[in-house]
Amino acid sequence: MLRFCNDSVKIYKGKFDVNTAVFKNGIATDPNVGENVYEGVKKILITHGHADHFGDALFLEGKVKILAPRHETPLVENPEINWRGMYSWAKLPEDIVTPYFLGRGVRVDEFSDSLEGVNGIKTVPTHGHTPSHKSYLIDDVFVAGDSVHCPSYWEKFGILYYVDPDRMMESLKVIKREDWDLLVPGHGDVFERGEGLKVIDKNIKMLREKDREIYEIVRENGDDGVEEMEVIAELARKYGFKGVKAVLVVMPPVRGHISSMCERRLLELFERGGKIAVKAVKPYRPKS
Ligand SMILES: [Zn+2]
Question: 230 with 158, same domain?
Fold first, then answer.
């Protein structure tokens, strides 16, 4: 389904509501429409190694050049690495993996990390959602992948997937400074610049809110602290996440915030009865 169209780009609403952009100049990004909309496409750019962002790459393999960030490439070529990592590298049954991460791998032809000037593309490092996520500025369109979440997703889910909230925040500030007229998040609506800047501010605000929210859950438990899994459970209950798949997806962002606050000396991790627990050691201060 076509979501947006102008003289230089067509944006399709793909599987999992993903945004697949097909540019007039023969570039397409994050292909996952499930049908062939790639006539004239010569290069595919993938933002990161989550399978919902490259589902169509397999049937384009050999016909177009497939580019992905260097350190996301192992996940694109072998998506299992991603969900094994999510579960401490241990084997886990495939039926409890979020469908967003399940898919068939595809061979990457080239790394996309430094494309500045090539076919009018600029690669912008936007780490945080995944460790090496990249965005692409093509003409005046900013393909943000999952470095920007659509506001309706924040409203619907309460907390969203990322591994490093601090780098996520830095990336959002970088995106604001880039010269674009259209913002294309990984999923959901696309935005003209004015609205897009507000969407980025909303993401920054939500990251700050989650940080504070997780701190308060820990602080309420006083000097005894709280088990790390109980912090995750409290958020899962608050936002109505049910099932193993959903809980697994909430673990990385919660742990990312806890790590950040440990680095900022607000929280401290400790071991209690063989479980990992966390306690507040200083009053809350937002990350500067
Ligand atoms: Zn993703």
Answer: no
